[in-house]
Amino acid sequence: MEYSCGEEFDVIVVGAGIMGSSTAYQLAKRGQNTLLLEQFDFLHHCGSSHGESRTLRATYRQDYYGTMVLESSQLWEKAENEIGFKVYFKGHHFDMGPVDDRSLSAIISSCGKNSIPYRVLNHREVAEQFSGRIDIPDNWIGVRTELGGIIKPTKAVSMFQTLAIQNGAVLRDHMEVKNIVKDKDKGGIWVFTVNGEKFWAKKCVVTAGAWTSRLIKKFSGIELPIEPLETMVCYWRIKEGKEKEFTLGGGFPTFASYGEPRVYGTPAFEFPGLIKIAVHGGQLCDPDNRPWGPGVSLSLVKEWIGRTLMGQVDCERPVATQLCMYSVTPDEDFVIDFVGGEFGKDVVVGGGFSGHGFKMGPVVGRILADLALEGEAKGVELKHFGIRRFEDSPGGNVKDFGDELGNLKLN
Ligand SMILES: Cc1cc2nc3c(=O)[nH]c(=O)nc-3n(C[C@H](O)[C@H](O)[C@H](O)COP(=O)(O)OP(=O)(O)OC[C@H]3O[C@@H](n4cnc5c(N)ncnc54)[C@H](O)[C@@H]3O)c2cc1C
Questions:
Q1: Pocket of ligand 1, candidates 13, 52, 54, 385: which has the most ligand atoms within 8 Å of its Cβ, to mutate?
Q2: CB 3.0–4.6 Å: which of 99, 192, 386, 398 could bond 179 by disulfide?
Q3: The whole model's pTM is what?
Q4: Which residues form the FAD dependent oxidoreductase domain (predicted)?
Q5: In the structure, what pLDDT confidence band is assigned to residue 4 with cuts at 50, 70 and 90?
Q6: CA end-to-end span of the chain, whole Å?
Q7: Residue with the nearest Cα to atom 35 of ligand 1?
């Protein structure tokens, strides 16, 4: 294929998952001559942004994510209006766990601070609300919020890539970036690929998912503790005759369960009659030499399904599974910052989305584009996402939820 574009760009984005694709869209829409480079095929299944469903929820333990979710949900709808099809299907969200669980208390407090409407339900109210579908123990509570729903990941990445192209961006796959070098004479940076091509740009944004630490270390020397985990999504069969009751239309929520096991799921949507229920966590992996299974132990989640979904879902075994990667920081907070050092504000990184970044794709794209173009991002507090926060404190941001620091690494 011939490429008519020259070798010089305003901004080069490295990595075409949800973060890179939404950033490329934001940049191109603002009139920037943008190049998006991807090491594999576009829409491949080897990173974090592929598959059939992601949860959108506003219930965060940390206050600083609330406003980001609210902005992101608006930006999802804006992009849908531009492309002309839907990728985000609204529903409500339900968190549950022991009454003294510190994560749930933090969620309730953060909803209050961010003016996110919520309702705390006791055992009896949960039974009334989800009659015959969700049962929690007497000493548990549930938190119901209206802002929830399902995002279609592969379709959403494809949407942003299409919008980026429509706005003039150049997208190239099978282009593995091997180095990023500052041009000390001319200014700006050079991006070199494994297949021998090179491109110049004023700015560069690195959104390399599970490969972020490796790439950042290579060109800047910075050691970022972002760990790739292989995780597994499971689909379970809903008992015959009950299928509609577990759909968005039937009023079933996206959900998360705190305590042990830490479970999340989405209503039946992508595969009729099957509900997605998975364990939040995974096994450490090398993104270039993946184990591709066998996945995490399912014994606790099977018990959880049997107990919580009131025998309406067959918990003997999942009928389908899919593998995916998380890229996890020690504090599960994102890294959104300038690389600094000799690169100053010319190279921006967005990584470490720790298994909860997809919903934030549009707002992260907006922020990364702001940082690249303006040198700052308005309307968002980025101090928790600093690239150097691990230098003095290997655990990163201090948390007190009782289940932080490595709880996502499962056997
Ligand atoms: C099973 C699962 C369930 C999840 N559920 C949710 C959820 O319900 N809600 C939610 O909000 N989030 C969820 N997440 C998290 C969310 O999907 C991720 O945070 C998000 O997809 C991360 O996107 P990314 O663009 O950073 O990474 P990726 O999608 O991995 O994109 C990075 C891209 O960079 C490319 N790349 C890497 N190195 C190079 C290089 N050197 N040169 C060129 N290209 C390169 C990679 O090939 C890849 O395409 C889930 C994740 C998984 C795996």
A1: 54
A2: 192
A3: 0.97
A4: 10-371
A5: very low
A6: 46
A7: 15
Q: What is the whole-number distance in angstroms between the Cα of residue 129 and the centre of ligand 1?
A: 34
Q: Which two tokens stand for residue 320?
A: 């389908």
| pLDDT tens figures, 28-53 | 999 999 999 999 999 999 999 999 99
134's tokens: 């969700």
The residue with tokens 């003997």 is 316
Distance 349 CA to ligand 1 centre (A): 14
**Measured from the CA of 356, which atom of ligand 1 is nearest?**
12
Tokens 């948390």 label which residue? 399
Q: How far is the CA of 128 from the centre of ligand 1 (A)?
A: 38
Extract the tokens encoding 307: 């107990």
What residues contact 153, with CB distance under 8 A and at least 6 apart? Answer: 18, 49, 50, 51, 52, 53, 54, 358
Residue 203 identity (one-letter amino acid): K
The per-residue pLDDT for range 202-247, each reduced to its tens digit, is 999 999 999 999 999 999 999 999 999 999 999 999 999 999 999 9
The predicted-structure confidence for 98-115, as pLDDT tens digits, reads as follows 999 999 999 999 999 999
Coil, strand or helix: which one is 44? coil
Question: Amino acid identity of 296?
Answer: V
Question: What is the pLDDT at residue 409?
Answer: 73
Index of the ligand 1 atom closest to the CA of residue 325: 53
Which has the closest alpha carbon to 20: 46, 41, 49, 53? 49
